Automatic annotation (TrEMBL):
PANTHER family given in the database record: SODIUM/PROLINE SYMPORTER-RELATED (PTHR48086), SODIUM_PROLINE SYMPORTER (PTHR48086:SF3)
NCBIfam families assigned to the protein according to its UniProt record, in alphabetical order: Na_Pro_sym, sss
Name of the protein this chain belongs to: Sodium/proline symporter
Transmembrane segments: 6-24, 75-93, 126-151, 163-184, 191-208, 228-248, 274-295, 315-343, 364-385, 397-415, 422-442, 448-468
Classification of source organism: Bacteria, Pseudomonadati, Pseudomonadota, Alphaproteobacteria, Sphingomonadales
One Pfam family recorded for the sequence: SSF
GO molecular function, one term: sodium ion binding
Organism: Sphingopyxis flava
Family membership: Belongs to the sodium:solute symporter (SSF) (TC 2.A.21) family.
Protein task: Catalyzes the sodium-dependent uptake of extracellular L-proline.
Any single Gene Ontology cellular-component annotation: plasma membrane
Record GO biological process: proline transport
Keywords per UniProt: Amino-acid transport, Cell inner membrane, Cell membrane, Ion transport, Membrane, Sodium, Sodium transport, Symport, Transmembrane, Transmembrane helix, Transport
Membrane topology designation: Multi-pass membrane protein
Length: 480
């Protein structure tokens, strides 16, 4: 590995750690600051933090790999995600920001749900916390797999060494700086990712032989590669687009809405966030398609389609620039892992430790427990990430579906339907998670993405159970 490339990667790691130290000195004095940055984020940081924590390694590795292998038809995932993210900003963001503050200044999603439904038994908070820990362990593992693959492919490192490097740097700045560190690093990482996804496909187009074009090369491979409808079915399109339903239930994304300084800032954040997302998704699609044309035209063998971004960067750019491009992949991976680790640690701290073990814990003790929880969840994710053959996109798809089905309908109804009950909330969460796991277990996800049946089943469970049970007394009050 060229020294210039290593220097660029080292500079990136140093920047992330420096941000962690800055956040540690500025915003970790109590649980509100450590877990939610005192609800003080501006619209630009909120927007890019939500976007970067959303996209993860699948944006740089999984999605381009799918496009490389199957063609433009895989773009339905991106289309569904874009629509889902827009609806999430429009429907969930302003209501969640207002209601989490009005319902007891809740610092976590489970705490908000418990306050919202006056759950004196804490069953809802406990179940919600368990779902978060289980699915985020899987989700975080997918990010570590992406990091391990990156170091193995680009640096020639052992896969295990790649896992340890990725996990160590992420855990360090999350433990140090909490929510502010995660948000500021996500902002920087989001900028890096977007620039890389513009530069790489543009350079690949310029690197094609003069007699070749992207479309002609792809059509020669398979005419269906350049069609949104080529070689697929209506069910497959619906299944791919259904990814967008998952946005409403992703704790690591929607918690960013809770931290923005004012509801009035949300429209600005939405415009920034959706612009960033549109550019980044188009760039990832272009990396996959242009990368396939580039590899075919130049006779380059690609053993793993999910590494096409890395191959293009190494082939087309100076080692120093290549180091910057590798940092973009690390940014995608680390931004999501950090958000997931913090949300999981927050839930273990606020929804388990403070609730069931030490109610009178001091603010300093809570911050310490939060940091230890982050380390513990990272260790579990490391164990789950031991298989280097694991598909990044497949791991992400299962975790995304689990959250989307368990929390998506629950959050939407909780924010918009006052007749919803505690029993309905529990029924919806459990039903959504169970249907997703059953769908995967029986292999039905190969024909229909498990999120769609899980989301529908959860919504129906909430509606039916809420209508046959008595609503909580708190719902007689008007909340936004």
């Amino acid at each position: 590995m060229n020294n210039a490339t290593l220097f660029a990667i080292g500079a990136y790691f140093a920047l992330m750690l420096a941000i962690g130290v800055y956040a540690w000195r500025k915003s970790t004095s109590d649980s509100s600051e450590y877990l939610l940055s005192g609800r003080s984020l501006g619209p630009a940081v909120t927007a890019l933090a939500a976007g970067a924590s959303d996209m993860s390694g699948w944006l740089m590795l999984g999605l381009p790999g799918a496009l490389y292998a199957s063609g433009l038809v895989e773009s339905w995932i991106a289309i569904g995600l874009f629509i889902g993210a827009w609806a999430n900003w429009l429907v969930v963001a302003p209501r969640l920001r207002a209601q989490t503050e009005s319902y007891g200044n809740a610092l976590t999603i489970p705490e908000y749900l418990g306050n919202r439904f006056e759950d004196q038994s804490h069953r809802l908070r406990l179940v919600a916390s368990l779902v978060i820990v289980i699915f985020f362990a899987i989700y975080s593992a997918s990010g570590l797999v992406a990091g391990g693959k990156l170091f193995q492919t680009a640096f020639g490192f052992d896969y295990q060494a790649g896992l340890w490097i990725t996990a160590t740097v992420v855990v360090a700045y999350v433990v140090l700086g909490g929510f502010l560190a995660v948000s500021l690093t996500d902002f920087v990482q989001g900028c890096i990712m977007m620039v890389a996804l513009i530069v790489v496909p543009a350079a690949a187009v310029l690197g094609l032989p003069e007699t070749s074009s992207v479309r002609a090369t792809l059509d020669a491979i398979d005419p269906g590669m350049t069609s949104l409808l080529g070689g697929t079915t209506a069910l497959a399109i619906v299944s791919a687009a259904a990814w967008g339903l998952g946005y409403f239930g992703q704790p690591h994304i929607i918690v960013r809405f809770m931290a923005i300084r004012s509801v009035k800032d949300i429209p600005t954040a939405r415009r920034i966030g959706m612009s960033w997302m549109g550019i980044s998704l188009l760039g990832a699609i272009a990396v996959g398609l242009v990368g396939r044309a580039f590899a075919e035209s130049n006779g380059i063998a690609v053993a793993d389609p999910e590494t096409i971004f890395i191959l293009l960067g190494e082939t087309l750019f100076h080692p120093l620039i290549f180091g910057f491009l590798l940092s973009a992949i690390l940014a995608a991976v680390m931004s999501t892992i950090s958000a997931q680790l913090l949300v999981t640690g927050s839930s273990l701290t606020e929804d388990f430790y403070r609730l069931f073990i030490h109610r009178a814990a001091s603010e300093g003790e809570i911050v310490t427990v939060g940091r230890l929880s982050v380390v513990g969840v990272a260790a579990i994710a490391m164990l789950l990430a031991q298989d280097p053959e694991g598909s990044v996109l497949k791991l992400v798809s299962h975790a995304w579906a689990g959250f989307g089905a368990a929390f998506g309908p629950l959050i939407l109804f909780a924010l918009t339907w006052r007749r919803m009950t505690l029993a309905g909330a529990l029924a919806g969460m459990i039903t959504g998670a169970a249907v997703v796991m059953i769908w995967i277990q029986f292999g039905w996800d190969s024909s229909l993405y498990e999120l769609l049946p899980g989301f529908i089943a959860a919504a129906l469970a909430i509606l039916v159970v809420s209508l046959v049970t008595k609503p909580p007394q708190a719902e007689t009050r008007a909340h936004g």
